Amino acid sequence: MKSTIIALSTLVFLSACGATTSPTQFYVLAPPEVFGKKAQSEASELSLGIGPIEMPRYLDRPQIVTKASRYKLNLAEFDQWAEPLKDNLSRVLVENISTILGTERVSKFPSRRPSTPDYQISINILSMDVSRSNSAHLNSIWSIYKPGLSTAVAVGKSNLEKKIETEGYEGVVEAMSINLMQLSIDISSRVKLLN
Q: Which of 26, 117, 129, 154 could form an S-S bond across to 47 if both were Cys, CB 3.0 to 4.6 Å?
């Protein structure tokens, strides 16, 4: 009996050692390639500061968060952001808005640059998730400020949805990136009206 227990214990140990887990996959939001080619505008001297960006704390984690239901969230154990999500959002918004407005003078706000931007854009991400209908959603409120003024010169709300067309988490991140591109277009369009 004792030898049988030892044999079973050894078998369990060896099978555990041989078991493999899925390697963790890492993702980043990025401007769609087609967007970068089509959105170029005439060169501009306009300067903008992007930030601060606020978002729900449940999104501020390495794991990609998706919705299982209205009240339940799923955290992807092996599908994670390659950098803090807020940093990734900020970098992509800077790149998108710079491309749309045709200016290289777009940076994260506050920045170390000595000059004050023409406009500062604060963004509050209300939700950024995937629904059971297989669509990525991005809901946000954003405000545009002119230095020296205590109130916003423009306020907008973007409720965006993009159907996920590629399987897996790469498709999720691709759809989220397209929503972020549309948010950049919404903000840039309002800046153009002000300028």
A: 117
The CATH code of domain 25-194 reads 3.40.50.10610
pLDDT at 115: 78
Confidence band for 44, pLDDT divided at 50, 70 and 90: confident
Classify residue 76 as exposed, middle or buried by CB count within 10 Å of its CB (0-12, 13-18, 19+).
middle
Length of the chain equals 195
What integer is the mean pLDDT of 23-51? 80
Write the single-letter amino acid at 11.
L
